[in-house]
């Protein structure tokens, strides 16, 4: 079994780096997710006892007093860090400009969803999961779809 310092890559592409004991995450270690997020934690027999998640854009998750993108402040993290754009210029996602969505698909955050096949793929078009009925309905109802036209800001001559 794995012991000491090391790294282990899961089939999803997520990598663990840190201390191992008896084949399990044990001690200080971090998970590095393919999308760029990280979870640093203190592990005990494979279970995190305390930890902090940081999104790929540097936003740190807070489980208490979470104010990011709530009902009172709907700005994206990049808008919080770099300010709002001028009136009439909309930012549709935290990533600006937003990713190009494949035709007939939806952007569901961690990837793209094809409602015909009911498959979610990551942004590099690698399989993530099959959507169940609840996820399908949520994506169709709330997510941005390919072909959605936005008005470009054009400065006055």
From TrEMBL:
Cellular compartment(s): Cell projection, Cilium, Flagellum
Coiled-coil residues: none
Any one Gene Ontology cellular component term annotated for this protein: motile cilium
The species this protein was found in: Caloenas nicobarica
Keyword vocabulary terms for this entry: Cell projection, Cilium, Flagellum, Repeat
Protein name, as recorded: MORN repeat-containing protein 5
Pfam family, one: MORN
Highest taxon above the source species: Eukaryota
InterPro entries per UniProt: MORN, Morn5
Main subcellular localisation: other
């Amino acid at each position: 079994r794995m012991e000491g310092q090391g790294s282990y890559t899961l089939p999803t592409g997520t990598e663990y780096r840190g201390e191992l004991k008896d084949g399990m995450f044990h001690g200080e270690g971090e998970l590095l997710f393919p999308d760029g997020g990280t979870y640093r934690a203190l592990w005990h027999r494979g279970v995190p006892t305390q930890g902090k998640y940081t999104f790929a854009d540097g936003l740190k998750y807070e489980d208490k007093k979470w104010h990011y993108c709530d009902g009172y402040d709907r700005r994206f993290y990049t808008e919080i860090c770099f300010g709002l754009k001028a009136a009439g210029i909309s930012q549709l996602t935290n990533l600006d400009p937003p990713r190009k969505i494949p035709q007939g698909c939806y952007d569901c955050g961690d990837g793209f969803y094809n409602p015909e096949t009911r498959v979610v793929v990551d942004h590099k078009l690698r399989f993530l999961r099959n959507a169940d009925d609840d996820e399908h309905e949520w994506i169709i109802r709330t997510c941005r779809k390919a072909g959605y036209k936005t008005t470009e800001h054009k400065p006055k001559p």
